[in-house]
Structures are given as C-alpha cells and as structure tokens.
Amino acid sequence: MLLHDSSDVLLESAKMLHYGGWTKICDSLFVVFALVFLWTRLVVFPGRVLHTTLVLSLEFFEPFCGYYFFNALLLVLQALHIFWAYLILRMIYKFMFMGKVERDERSDEESEVDDEEEEDEPDEEGDECSWEQRKGAINSKLASLANNCVLNNLTNQRNINSRLPKAR
C-alpha cells in the first residue's frame, strides 16, 4: 500500500491543480509524481517485494500452488507498472521537447470524443468565454448531483419512515 499510494497522492494533487488552472505548479508536481512513481514501482517494488516473494521465500518454504499463483499476479502487476511508466515517460518527453501535452496519454476513446467536441465549439471571446462555459457546465453538474443526493435522501427517509411503527 505504501509503495502504491505514495505516488497516487501526488497525481491526484496534480490533477486538482490542473483543473484549477495552476499549470506551473501542476507541471512541477507531475514531474515529482513521475520520479516517485518510477522509483517506487520500477526499483523498490521489484527489488524488495518481488525478490522477497520469488527468491527469499524459497529458503523457508517449498513452492506450492499458491506460490505460483501469487507470484504470477505480482508479475502481471509489474508488467502493468512498466506499461504505465512508459506512458508517463512519453508524457514527460512530449512536455519537455514539444512544450505541452495535448491530453492525458491514458485517456480512453470516450474521453477523446469529449475533448474533440469541446475543441469544435467556437471561442468568440477567448479564454473568458471558455472559462464561463466550463464554470456553467460544472455548476450544472453540481446542481444535478445535489438534486440526486437530495432525492436519494428523501427516498431513503420515506423508506425508513414506512418501516417504523406509527406512534399512537
């Protein structure tokens, strides 16, 4: 948990700063995230965890079915770490040599369609208009979320009240 969560905190903080428009701090924090990610998942994880489970455990126990299954899962996790590290290094390369990363490298097809739709919208007043559009979209999503929460709470309250015996 410590190996994986240490870099996740930095990534989530960088995302918040990106959404808030603090790009310089976001970029710096992303570089720190990348360094921590690369160190913990490509050096510490294989050097400590994988070595312990694959090699050192054989000094104390005979291999059994769980040994192979557990280590196979850990090796799959390490393969994912290598793939994610490749994506992160590619983003850093684009940032350093091309100036700016267009979008998240890990984005799926659905996100790309949303990004393209946003780019197609004309910006008559520049960044001011874009900010107002984003602010309006966020406010409408928050209002929708609040309404859903209120409706869910009301529905749950009605269900609780219907189960309680009525006072006489």
UniProtKB/TrEMBL annotation:
<feature type="region of interest" description="Disordered">
    <location>
        <begin position="104"/>
        <end position="132"/>
    </location>
</feature>
<comment type="pathway">
    <text>Lipid metabolism; sphingolipid metabolism.</text>
</comment>
<comment type="pathway">
    <text>Sphingolipid metabolism.</text>
</comment>
<dbReference type="InterPro" id="IPR006634">
    <property type="entry name" value="TLC-dom"/>
</dbReference>
<dbReference type="Pfam" id="PF03798">
    <property type="entry name" value="TRAM_LAG1_CLN8"/>
</dbReference>
<feature type="transmembrane region" description="Helical">
    <location>
        <begin position="25"/>
        <end position="47"/>
    </location>
</feature>
<keyword id="KW-0472">Membrane</keyword>
<dbReference type="GO" id="GO:0016020">
    <property type="term" value="C:membrane"/>
</dbReference>
<feature type="compositionally biased region" description="Acidic residues">
    <location>
        <begin position="107"/>
        <end position="130"/>
    </location>
</feature>
<dbReference type="InterPro" id="IPR016439">
    <property type="entry name" value="Lag1/Lac1-like"/>
</dbReference>
<dbReference type="GO" id="GO:0046513">
    <property type="term" value="P:ceramide biosynthetic process"/>
</dbReference>
<keyword id="KW-1133">Transmembrane helix</keyword>
<keyword id="KW-0812">Transmembrane</keyword>
<feature type="domain" description="TLC">
    <location>
        <begin position="1"/>
        <end position="97"/>
    </location>
</feature>
<dbReference type="GO" id="GO:0050291">
    <property type="term" value="F:sphingosine N-acyltransferase activity"/>
</dbReference>
<feature type="transmembrane region" description="Helical">
    <location>
        <begin position="67"/>
        <end position="89"/>
    </location>
</feature>
<protein>
    <submittedName>
        <fullName>Ceramide synthase 2</fullName>
    </submittedName>
</protein>
